[in-house]
Specification:
The protein has 248 residues and is of the alpha+beta class. The chain has four helices and 15 strands. Helix 1 runs antiparallel to helix 2.
Length: 248
């Protein structure tokens, strides 16, 4: 069942979202050649706790880390480890925070040093597709309006949308109904209503759309091992315009 949030609840989600955005902004400044994803994970945990929150992902369905660090062909759920980043790579960081009983969730993809034009375009297109989806997040529109604009734009730019993983509702739980796909085929459609809070998160591959989950049960990689990018915001549906809650 889709849960409609009160103004007080939305403010709670907004506060969790501010912490999420603040910590992700801090992590962005630490991304450089030689930094390990484990360092980023440990830093995130300290900074989330310093701000009165807890890492939403740590222990969630058994996930072993505080953030997801997905490098190059890793689409999502990359587990931080003791290996250094290299110039020319891209890294997606997915970060969730629980604060005062409510959740915020956000993701972004960053370059490590200088990257080639194809990776730059992948990042640019994925980020723009997110904001095109947010623009459609209006009361009275449908989930399919969000999905269609993302899917069409990504396809026009020569990339592909991941279908195995989708966005979601959020609130007192990290993942709530409805699912928020980035494609329109065979989705369970909903009319957007004021008070809904959703996470829109396009994952876009430079090659084929298919992904494979590795033997650790978490790490999802592109089937052709080409790079992937991921952007996400937590968004509140209002009668006037969408509000991004994961923003400083």
């Amino acid at each position: 069942m889709v849960k409609i949030k009160s103004k007080k609840e939305i403010e709670k989600i907004r506060e969790a979202g501010r912490v999420t955005a603040d910590v992700l902004s801090l992590l962005k400044r630490e991304i450089r050649t030689g930094v390990t994803t484990l360092y980023l994970n440990d830093l995130a945990k300290r900074e989330i706790e310093k701000r009165g929150g807890t890492p939403a992902f740590l222990g969630y369905q058994g996930y072993p880390a505080s953030i997801c660090t997905s490098v190059e062909e890793v689409v999502v759920h990359g587990i931080p480890g003791d290996f250094p980043l290299s110039s020319g790579q891209i890294i997606s960081i997915d970060l969730g925070v629980k604060k005062d009983g409510y959740y915020g969730d956000m993701a972004a993809t960053f370059p490590v040093g200088e990257i080639d034009r194809e990776r730059e375009r992948l990042i640019e297109v994925t980020q723009k597709s997110l904001f095109l989806g947010i623009e459609k997040s209006l009361s009275g529109n449908r989930l399919s309006d969000i999905a269609r604009v993302i899917q069409n734009y990504v396809k026009e730019e020569g990339f592909s949308v991941v279908r195995q993983f989708v966005g979601h509702g959020i609130g007192k739980s990290l993942h709530e109904e409805p699912e928020v796909p980035n494609y329109v085929e065979n989705i369970e459609d909903y009319i957007l209503q004021e008070g809904m809070v959703i996470c829109i998160e396009p994952m876009v591959n430079s090659g084929r759309a298919e992904v494979k989950v590795l033997s650790d049960g978490w790490t999802a990689v592109t089937i052709d091992r080409k790079p992937s990018a991921h952007f996400e915001h937590t968004v509140s549906i209002t009668k006037d315009k969408p509000e991004i809650l994961t923003i400083l």
